[in-house]
Design goal:
heterodimer; A: mainly alpha; two-stranded antiparallel sheet; 11 strands; globular; B: alpha/beta; nine-stranded mixed β-sheet; 34% helix; 12% strand
Chain lengths: 534, 454
Amino acid sequence: MRRIQLAGCLALALAACKPVSNKPPMPDLSAFAVEPPAGALHRLSVAQYVNTIHDIVSPDIIVPTALEPDSIIDGFASVGLTSATISPTGVDRYEKAALAIAKQALSTDARKQALVGCQPSEQTCLTNFIKTFGRRAWRRPLTDEEVQRLATVGTTAATALSDPWQGIGAVLASMLQSPNFLFRVELGEPDAGGLRYTNHEMAGRLAAFLTGSTPDEALLAAADRGELVTDAGLRQQVRRLLDSPASRKGMRSFFTELLNLKELDSLSKDTNVFLAMSADLGPAAREETLRDLENIVFDTNADYRTFFTGRSTFVNRRLAAVYDVATPSLDGFSAVTLPADGARVGFLGQVSFLALQSHPTTTSPVLRGKFVRTVLLCDKIAPPPAGVNTGLLPITATIRTMRDRAQAHLEQASYCAGCHRMMDPIGLGLENFDGIGKFRTLDNGVTIDASGDIDGKRYTTPEGLAQTIVSSPKFPACFGRKMFEYAAGSAPTPAQDDFVKALGEAFVKTDYRVKDMMEIVAMSSGFRRAGAPQ
Amino acid sequence: MSGPLSKFRLNRRTLLRGMVQGAAISIALPPLEAFFGTTGKAYASGEAIPKRFGLFFWGNGVVPEHWVPDYTNLTGTTVGQGTVFPSYALSPILTPLEGLQSSFSLITGTGVKLPNLEPHTSGAAGILSGGPVRRTDHTTFLYPSIDQVMARVIGGQTRFKSLEFGARASGGQSYNGPDDQNPPETSPAAFFNRLFVDGYTPPGGSTTPDPMLAVRSSILDAVKQDANTLRQRLGTVDRQRLDQHLTGIRELEMRIANTRPPDLAACMTPGAPADDYPAIEGREQVSAPNRAFTDILAMALACDQTRVFSNVITNPINNVLFPGATAGHHQLTHDELEDQPMVTSICVQLMAELAYFIQKLKSVPEGDGTLLDHCAVLCTTDVSRGRTHALDEFPIIIAGTASGALKSGILYRSDAQENSSQVLFSLMNAMDIPTTSFGYEEGLVEKGLSAIEA
């Protein structure tokens, strides 16, 4: 790597070339003084449940997704699931899923052998399975008492159903319904006058954050060896995971939650108004955004700001029709570069943002502006006061465009203006894109004025808007905050302000590299130390 | 859970077995009749017909001037702080209920008195739990919704303690407590499978226990032990979360133990619904899946699989594009001008769903009446006027009479803007769950609405 870099340097003017070692060292927040979020039970999200089953049983298992639904707090399922419980209906659904998974896992001789690797009629087979599979499912070695308990389940079932394989199935189903599987149990252990997460708790945390799933064998082995509570051992595992394909899944999980992309499954748009709308547009738009991110974060390790200001993206036929670009291929997605003189740039020009943050028949400058403020800049926007009419003013002879209506609202309802002055100009800067994201120049026959300002900085085009957003000092600070919030499953409190601020500064020091940021967060004290469980 | 009523039922069944040993029973049992009411509320087997409580809920309120019937020239009787009108002409929104007026009471003029902190959620929490919300990023009811208050008392004897569902229910409106909701089924096919396929023994089906049931019990027993071991290591908050999980496990154990086939005259396995109800021209379907749910529910009640249900047809703030509407429902409630004809037409469509529901429950014979007679169904929404999120003039209909405990056919007009929680108080008593108060803070009341009680 380094040699290639040097060879490249020599080919250029030597004096202008900086050796790779001059790259500033990665910021290190592993010893930053912080009052960490409390240790807690973290329930698996639906996505984590599915990923985990694929990893520990078999990738071809059809995992039921009608499970206890995710609970969203502050935009993140990871935060919601730190306080969510399991309802009686959820218990039903987890039971049904566990029995269905066990049945599939043992449906053929090949699958039986792959999962168990011995004949359960042999005496030690059942116990061995409990120990090996249990360690994967519960992310830690089982106690003798737990092994014994599960062995009883297995022998009871084998006898009742006259089939030793049914004993294995019952054990599997039992493990998957246990709170030890459905929750990541992370309570910490005493260390240096406080608490730190244990080796195996760290394995679970790392896997959830970096891979959206459960620890692999290498990670559990590192935990067994006691390496995940040391800087060197942890760093080695973090880098290994970040260099493996599994981290792409983890990155996708994070951005799916951050950008609310799951909602694209239920996009509701009037097809009489939006002719390019179809049932598969929403999921296609999500795939576009995630591919774009994968390209930026992993394939090119590029500056995260280009996610907002760049013109490269990925489209299929549906999206090409919305973006008015030639379809590169008839099937699937292809990379395209949008026209350099076009208004469409970056994520704020993608259907996954424009359509989701709109109403079923119109745009919504308020929804679009609120998203930018709360998700990208971490500004607080209070909900509208109860009892006010939050309706838009009607179209009249003089109030014709969305901008006119927003302006008239600001003048008439002064007590609403404080928040709307923060949101509306951003959304109005994107009025060139209709309620599903198609480009337009007119609103109700009037040429669209896409100018505005964010915190006093002016822009006149969507590209200018994107540049203004990523140039704001709030932008990197917000990203650091959001990534930590997601990883820790806890909304930062004022006690963590200094730590969160340091994360934002670290992101700038990496030149806005998301992959580096994942490493910094995973290595940080805020991620590794636990507050006393409540 | 075993209250005085359940103990009594057990004694009665034992008694009947001893007396008639399976012969067709048509004999009256006067002393027991007195306990259950005087209108012959019994199955052919002689077992008392249970009372059921349900919720029929839609999101985004109504247009009050098109909801409240014109009562200005009607003759009524003063009862308490209001007026009872025994006959009245239906308002525009209520026209789909033509011909069904004798099956429900319409309650107007009451209001949710709790502070309207969170548009749409405060009203829902007020009318369903009688209590306030906790306003956070993730606003939640602070107290259980009335369906769960009831289910804790009357839900223990059936296969399902309660059922939550709805065509566009989103997260639903059924709360066990703060941040603790019962997720609704939104797919009629999944609802059907849960009720009538998985673990269901049809009438006349085999009573030989499936050995798998014993295996499932032993699995759950181990899961419970896992939870109890883990519980000892937890702090207070996580311990409460795990206790909820344990409650659910115990309910599932009871369900596994209780798979005897129903033995009730009107019980039949309903037809399976469509697998999917896809959007039509970008418009999500509401009516077709709701009617599929209703058909399944009617048989779930007739087969005594549950006695408590919560049907959230559409959730608060839903932006469903209804047929004929030019924008989503929530957006229209705020954007449409003057007297909101399009919002009104959406409300009419929702009342057509209520009409279907009432007709369906009336079509199932039970004892000498119908299934609807033995229900009390609270039909309501999350705000009165969607446009302003107002909580006065709250829209409330009670369908069914809880076996004669409630009046039907009347229009009640509260002349003193009484607290809507009084309706919940009356419902509790009508369901034989005597209470001396209902609700919390400004939602707390210590009396019902005597005018709607029989």
